[in-house]
Structure formats: structure tokens, C-alpha cells
Automatic annotation (TrEMBL):
Belongs to the GTF2H2 family. This is General transcription and DNA repair factor IIH. Residues 21-30 have a biased composition (Acidic residues). The lineage of its organism: Eukaryota, Fungi, Dikarya, Basidiomycota, Agaricomycotina. Residues 1-61 are annotated as: Disordered. Residues 114-290 form the VWFA domain. It comes from the Eukaryota.
Length: 455
């Protein structure tokens, strides 16, 4: 630091800039701004600075714990005519914008996924900063997450581990059947939060149940963490190293605040870290993990040597036993069952697909499952909002044959949504150049995953 003399402004500025650099990533530079204004000591500058800051803050979403009570009916705004049309269109536009940001080219993804869901069941989950309570909201979102996850990843399997009383607690075994997984968290009383969480115990337990998995499948851990402490028996950094070695991707959704170890777990293993601001943001953070992860981030972690050649893997399509077949022992539960599937290689009877055969280790999938996973590899390109019709526009939507409105509506005039909302209600596929209505656009991209015009 230069000596304090003569040119006071120079000294101050130099001091501030070096200090503010260090704090940039913590406070979005707000800290730096404040210091600079203080250093200059000019009333005009300070006033302007604080004004800017105030404006920026009001634009941001408030944290749930900062906000007063909210009235959900106030968030839906009617337009002048008393209609909810604009509110609905605004929601659609938000979805479209998110889709436009997604990569539309084919990238390599891991479609055979194994996820361990680690739920914090410590007493901090009883906090009511998220309504109705952290615990109830987590259970509700977990259910929705599991349903959506299996819909998008029919070849995947989910297991659930709870963190309670300083221990990891096995709540649901790894299973490819959504009903089994949902059943594991259906009993609210059995999961009643209590005591302190232990990150290390829970991660070790999750790691143990994924250690047998073959290398072509992804290993993922999603931690929902409400506490700000962890009570571990050993060094958690050893566990972190073990996760990196096992190529386990750890993602953390924190309900309270950022913890360094949580951030580090996510960063070093290629996962995602996020702190929940409010109920909607919580859901967004969680559902970001539904689409299969791109494979490049995994290769980046291993030190840059990208292996582009794909490994072939064996899969078997099982024979479904007819309902009238005689009872026989299944290999997964050792129970007498009349229905199930036969492993094509060793003829063992299993209850559910997809699964790995307990006898010969062959991966057993049904062909519809395999086909359903396919769309992630070749996503439908986002449709473009049409602002001007050409010479002879098609009068009807190519998807549902609904007639397009004759004259443009006024909603497209808002400059922030103009590029995502078409005033004509038309959305055009860049490949087949057919026009679709807004409803069909959402349906094609969220449910169908195939453009009806291109087929
Ligand atoms: Zn069985
Ligand atoms: Zn078999
Ligand atoms: Zn349509
Ligand atoms: Zn098309």
C-alpha cells in the first residue's frame, strides 16, 4: 500500500480496489461499491450509488425469510379487461425463454442414471421459513421430483437416505420402480425430523450402495440440506476425495445458507449447488437435475482426456410372464410370484424392469423404456416466435388444427417478452417451417419430444 499523503484520492482508490477484489464473489460487488463511495467522500456520488443499489435490490426476488406474509392471489394480476390471459401468457413466455437457453444440438448424455436422494431429517427441517414447513415442502417436492425424474429417465434408479440423529438412515433401497421409491417416503410420521444431520455418514452410506455399479452408468447424489452444521465422525474431506475417486456427482440444494463444504462437494464433483430463495425457486433448483447430465463435465473432471469412443454394453429384453403362469420364486425378493419378467440369458424371474439381473448381472430393460430415453440425445429445436406472417400463412395450427387469430394481439408489445411471445400466436419449427400454436409448442417440447411436422 502506498503511503498516505498528497493525492488522497489516489491512495483511497488504490486501497479500495484491492480490497474490493477479494470480496467480489461474496457480495456481487456491492461491498466494493460501498467502499469506493466512502473513499471518495462526495455526497453526490454516494447518493447515486445507494440509489442504484436500492433499485437493484428491489428487482431481485426476496428471500423467503426476509419477506412478510404473501397472498398468493395477489401474484396473479388481471389485465384491464379483467382477464387472466396476460398472466397465463407471461407464464408460458417464461417457459419458452428457459427452453431457448437450452442446447438444442445433440450432446452425449448419460441415460442410465443412478441417483441417491439424501434428505435432511434434522430438527432444522421443522423451520417454517418455507411454507408449510421445510420438511413438508421437501416431502412434497421430492414426490413430484421422483415422478418427473422417472418419466424423463425410465432407465434410472433412485434410492433414498435420510440424515437424522447424527446418522445416515436407509429409507428406500435403489429401485427402478417409481412406486417403490414413492412408497418409501409416503409415511410422514416415519420420517419425523429429529437431532443433527451428518453429511459424512449419509454420503458414505449412499456411496456404499452405489459401489457395485458398472462404469457406464452415472452415479449421482442429490442432497437436500436444511441445516447449517454437520456432525461427522471423521474428516469429511476424505469422503469428498472418495466421491471424486468414485466419479460420484454430488449436487446440493441448501434450504438455509451456503456452507463451504457443500459448495466444495458440488464444485469438485461436477455437481450443482444452489441456495433456496423461496418455494418456487426451491422447485426450480431441484427440477434442474431432472434432465440427464451431459457427459462432457464428467470427462473434464478426470483431467481433460476426453474419451469420445463409446463403449458397447449388453442389455437384455425380458420376456413378460403371462398372468396365468404358475407361481415361482423371484430372484429379487425370494417370494413366490405369478407375474414378472424372465431374464433372457439365465431365465431367472425378476419382478420389475429396468433392473440388473441378480443372477447373471445382465441389465434388463424393456424396449419402450429405451425408446423413451432417446429424446434427450436428440432434443426438438426450440420453435421461433413468428412476428410477421409471410405471403400465404397456413390458417391452422399444424398440431391441433386450431385456427390462428386473424389480427395480432397487443401482448407482444412488451419489449422484454417480444422475442419469446408471438403477437400472432404462431411458433415456427426451424426445420419443417410449420406453424404451431402456443399450447402445441409447450406440448411438443415438454411431453412429445418429437416435432409432428418433421416426422
Ligand atoms: Zn422380486
Ligand atoms: Zn440373468
Ligand atoms: Zn395447436
Ligand atoms: Zn419440425
Amino acid at each position: 500500500m502506498p503511503p498516505r499523503r498528497r493525492d488522497g484520492a489516489y491512495v483511497h482508490n488504490a486501497g479500495t480496489s484491492s480490497e474490493s477484489e477479494g470480496f467480489d464473489d461474496i457480495d456481487d460487488g456491492n461491498y466494493g461499491d460501498k467502499r469506493k463511495n466512502k473513499g471518495k467522500g462526495k455526497a453526490k456520488d454516494t447518493g447515486k450509488g445507494s440509489q442504484d443499489k436500492g433499485k437493484g435490490k428491489s428487482k431481485e426476488q426476496a428471500y423467503a425469510w426476509e419477506a412478510t406474509y404473501t397472498r398468493s392471489w395477489d401474484t396473479v394480476q388481471e389485465d384491464e379487461g379483467g382477464s387472466l390471459q396476460t398472466a397465463v401468457e407471461d407464464l408460458l413466455a417464461r417457459g419458452r425463454r428457459r427452453r431457448l437457453l437450452e442446447p438444442s444440438s445433440a450432446i452425449r448424455r448419460t441415460i442410465i442414471r443412478h441417483l441417491m436422494l439424501l434428505l435432511d431429517l434434522s430438527s432444522s427441517m421443522l423451520d417454517r421459513d418455507l411454507r408449510p414447513s421445510r420438511f413438508d415442502l421437501t416431502l412434497e417436492y421430492s414426490r413430484q421430483f421422483i415422478v418427473e425424474w422417472f418419466d424423463q429417465n425410465p432407465l434410472g434408479q433412485i434410492g433414498i437416505v435420510g440424515m437424522r440423529g447424527g446418522l445416515g438412515e436407509r429409507i428406500g433401497d435403489m429401485s427402478g420402480n417409481p412406486q417403490d421409491v414413492l412408497k418409501a417416503i409416503s409415511d410422514r410420521r416415519r420420517l419425523q425430523p429429529d437431532g443433527d444431520p451428518s453429511l459424512q455418514n449419509a454420503i458414505d452410506m449412499a456411496r456404499g450402495s452405489m459401489s457395485h455399479l458398472p462404469t457406464h452408468s452415472s452415479r449421482e447424489i442429490l442432497i437436500i440440506y436444511g441445516s447449517l452444521t454437520t456432525c461427522d465422525p471423521g474428516n469429511i474431506h476424505d469422503t469428498l476425495d472418495a466421491c471424486i475417486n468414485d466419479k460420484i456427482r454430488v449436487s446440493v440444494v441448501s434450504l438455509a445458507a451456503e456452507m463451504k463444504i457443500c459448495r466444495e462437494l458440488a464444485n469438485k464433483t461436477g455437481g450443482v449447488f444452489g441456495v433456496v430463495m423461496n418455494e418456487d425457486h426451491y422447485k426450480e433448483l431441484m427440477f434442474e437435475l431432472v434432465p440427464p447430465p451431459a457427459q462432457r463435465s464428467a470427462s473434464r473432471l478426470t483431467g481433460g482426456s476426453t474419451n469420445f469412443s463409446a463403449d458397447l454394453m449388453m442389455m437384455g429384453f425380458p420376456t413378460r410372464l403371462p398372468d396365468t403362469s404358475p407361481l415361482s420364486l423371484c430372484v429379487c425378493h425370494s417370494q413366490l410370484k405369478g407375474e414378472g419378467f424372465l431374464c433372457p440369458r439365465c431365465k431367472a424371474q425378476v419382478c420389475d424392469v429396468p433392473t440388473d439381473c441378480d443372477i447373471c448381472g445382465l441389465m434388463i430393460v424393456s424396449s419402450p423404456h429405451l425408446a423413451r430415453s432417446y429424446h434427450h440425445l436428440f432434443p426438438v429445436k426450440p420453435y421461433q416466435a413468428v412476428t410477421e406472417t409471410g405471403l400465404s400463412p397456413s390458417p391452422k395450427c399444424h398440431g391441433c388444427s386450431h385456427s390462428f387469430p386473424e389480427k395480432p394481439s397487443a401482448t407482444g408489445s412488451d419489449p422484454t417478452t417480444a422475442d419469446v411471445i408471438s403477437p400472432l400466436g404462431r411458433y415456427r419449427c426451424p426445420d419443417c417451417e410449420k406453424d404451431f400454436c402456443a399450447d402445441c409448442d409447450v406440448f411438443v417440447h415438454d411431453v412429445l419430444h418429437v416435432c409432428p411436422g418433421c416426422q
